[in-house]
């Protein structure tokens, strides 16, 4: 529940992330869409390539990297409202560089790739990031297949850096205690020690 949040806390303090939580979606299927997605408005003729399925929730707001499915093309992040200025830039490299952006519609976040002269008709992308729920990545549909239903979460591997376990356990137990209205003692890990004062990520 708190694994990704603790890893982000660790990353911000140390400048690195636990590799166990840096996950890859190797094949994010894309579909060509007009820049104007409102069905009531006229189309602009400027195309983007939008993820068919919404992205799993990201801890840090955006992916660590977005590349073509073969890894040969890397996309730079650009805020949606910066696209107009960037594509009309006087600097030619700015207008032809591959970009991606993110949009949230109906509480679902989709990725949009801008198809430049360097990249035409991208059918899929690879996305690397720290996600809130690794199960959402494990069950994410490959290519255009129908998303498979969640089965038993305990069937999936639970990977976590040993150094981060105490902090994750502490936050989880506190959440459970608050939910059940129970008092949480100092022996958080059930190891006959006072664990409540040694769980900072120094």
Describe the structure in your own words.
- With 202 residues, this protein is an alpha+beta fold.
- It has 2 domains: 1-18 and 160-202, no CATH class; 21-145.
- Helices cover 21% and strands 23% of the residues.
- The protein is built from 5 helices and 7 strands.
- It has a 7-stranded mixed barrel.
- Strand 5 (99-105) and strand 6 (108-114) form a beta hairpin.
- The radius of gyration is 21 Å and the shape is elongated.
- The model has no long low-confidence stretch (mean pLDDT 76).
Global structural class: alpha+beta
| Strand adjacency order, main sheet | 1-2-6-5-4-3-7
- Quaternary organization: single chain
Largest sheet: 7 strands, mixed, barrel
State the share of residues found in helices, binned by percent: 10-25%
What overall geometry do the principal axes of the alpha carbons give? Answer: elongated
The total tally of domains equals 2
Share of residues in strands: 15-25%
| Low confidence ranges | none
Total count of helical runs of at least 4 residues:
5
Termini Cα gap: 22 Å
Q: In angstroms, what is the radius of gyration?
A: 21 Å
Number of E-type strands: 7
